[in-house]
Amino acid sequence: MTIGTNQQVSCFGSHDHNQARRRAAESLPVGYGAAAAILLAALMLPACTGNSRKPLVVPIIIFGVCAAALAVWLAVVSENSCEQVRSSGLWKSILAQLTPAVCLTAAFPAVMGVLGTSYVGSVSVATLVLASSLATPWLSQIVCAPLFTELSDASEESEHASLESRWLSRWPYLAFCSTPIAIAFGVGVGLVLNWNHVAIAALVALCTLNSLFSQSTVVGILQRNYLLWATAWAAYALTLIAFPRIWFMPPVAGLLTQLVYISARRTEFSRPRRTPRILARFSKGALVGGVLWSDKLFFFLRSGPHFQAQFVFLAVLPAIVTYGYYFVRLAPRLDRIVTEMRTTMEKDSVTRSAARLRGLAHQVEATMVQVACVGGILCLSGVVTVSLSVPSVSLLYASMAVASTSFLIITVHLYKLEYVGRVDLMYKFAGAHLVLVAAAILVGAPGSTTYIVASALSAGVAIATAHSALAAWRLPEYALFWRHATQW
Fold first, then answer.
1. Sign of the alpha-carbon dihedral angle for 392, 394, 397, 399
2. pLDDT per residue over 49-104, tens digit each?
3. In whole angstroms, what separates CA 207 from the centre of its chain?
4. Whether residue 402 has pLDDT greater than 90
5. What span, in angstroms and rounded, lies between the C-alpha atoms of 431 and 140?
6. Are 246 and 97 found together in one domain?
7. What pLDDT, on a 0 to 100 scale, did the predictor assign at position 154?
8. Mean pLDDT across the stretch 32-40?
9. Whether residues 422 and 349 fall in one domain
């Protein structure tokens, strides 16, 4: 849906600017305070209930926190959002983004018995697949980062070249360059776990195939073709169920579904192209992707045989749902507003353009608060469910869920810093977070205390990234317009 000029003026016009700024100054502390209270309540809930499942504690906490969250939602998000578009495919798209978690959660229990009795070298196939599953999310962030950047930047380089054609021209070189990274992941994990050379070689092969499979899904993500995305992961899960002992088949099956689609829709043949600054883009994926995904791999390496995979995956689910909600609902809306603003700035007066830019900053602030509140509510819901059903592991689940949600909030802040041109701050904050989390998990004893410490350490990073992102977006003129104009 396109926003008309008159609607933009009413949203971002100068006559509403002072009121919007006052509302933003008042609502931001309330919004982030409510999100912090929700996460703190989720962390404290297992200690309050314990194994006794006290009947009154849970309803009181749920009612109080949800009432506060609802108030913030109505006062901050709904009122601040100038675009009240209700997308009919919103939840369908979010559910499609959950396909990997849903498919793998359903597939692994069905074949775990077979995987546990099959061995590759010194380790069972179940352990091999688990290690690869924990390494792949972070690895995929690294190896896919150049593709996302290159294809997004090249969106206007050739109107007759489809996205599929441009992907095919870049993938061979990127696949070649990303293979050493997959090898490093596999060798590093295998050596830490003291596996023999056969098991390490199998893990290297599986990490490599998973990285290629992840790169093949970039087209579906950029096109927002969630059916294509779901098809890839459904093929992965069904192959795992049908051929559990052939451990390398699932990523191959998923990769083939994407290659068939991409090859059928290409519009031209072009020779392979090299990607500039590929090391810098790999580094960006390692640092920013590591904020949300590195801790799970570190925890697996530290825990060894005591790693409780099912609860770890469940603890990440609230963050994954919020992540999907951000990319399906919030990010496209902001992109659309920025694009329309760039096209209209040439016709508008300086005063009106400045007012709209400040109104855009207000929109960004509301988006960041919305992510924090949605993540907190989903996290609390998961903690309540686990506390009532499996209270013996509720503290571990709560600590991991709160930490993962906090890491997601930091990730969104980093995205906003990159969007507005503060890549230097993005790298610094991401690197600091990675060091702090690695130290907390690898040095401390495995358990809930480790994640509580990691969350506490990353709280400072969350506050710093929020402050820097908000400050940068309150003066976005250079990053959003003049930086592009000076490149002509």
1. negative
2. 655 544 445 544 554 555 455 444 544 444 444 444 444 456 666 666 777 877 77
3. 20
4. yes
5. 18
6. yes
7. 52
8. 84
9. yes
- Pair (35, 101) in one structural domain: no
Sign of CA dihedral 166, 169, 170, 174: positive
**Tokens 């904050």 appear where?**
429
Q: DSSP letters along 253-296, please?
A: HHHHHHHHHHHHH--------PPTTHHHHHHHHHHHHHHHHHHH
279: tokens are: 């090391």
CA distances from 143 to 131, 216, 282, 306 (A): 18, 11, 6, 30
Q: Cα separation of 422 and 412, whole Å?
A: 14
Quick count: other Cβ atoms within 10 Å of Cβ 300? 22
Q: CA 399 to CA 453: how far, in whole Å?
A: 9
Place of tokens 């999100």: 35
The residue among 259, 276, 293 that closes a domain is 276
**CA–CA gap between residue 39 and residue 322 (Å, rounded):** 14
What pLDDT sits at residue 470?
A: 86
Residue 120, SS3? strand
On whether both 144 and 177 belong to a single domain, the answer is yes
Please say whether the beta carbons of 294 and 437 come within 8 A.
yes
CA–CA separation, 35 vs 69, rounded Å?
Answer: 8
Domain interval for residue 238: 92-276
pLDDT of residue 472: 84
- The percent helix, strand, coil of the chain (3-state, each to 5) is 85, 0, 15
- pTM of the predicted model, to two decimals? 0.84
Provide CB contacts within 8 A for 63, sequence distance 6+. none
If one counts the domains in the chain, the total is 2
Same domain as 242, residue 139: yes
Residue 21 and residue 113 in one domain: no
Is residue 126 located within the same domain as residue 266?
A: yes
Average pLDDT over residues 203-226: 91
The amino acid occupying position 166 is R
Do residues 251 and 393 share a domain? no
The average pLDDT across 126-133 equals 91
Residues 141-173 pLDDT 10s: 999 999 988 887 654 444 446 788 888 888 999
**Is residue 270 over pLDDT 70?**
no
32 is written with which tokens? 């982030």
Residue 53 lies in a domain: yes
Which residue has 């596996």 as its token pair? 195
pLDDT for the residue numbered 291: 94
Q: Copy the structure tokens of residue 56.
A: 């009154």
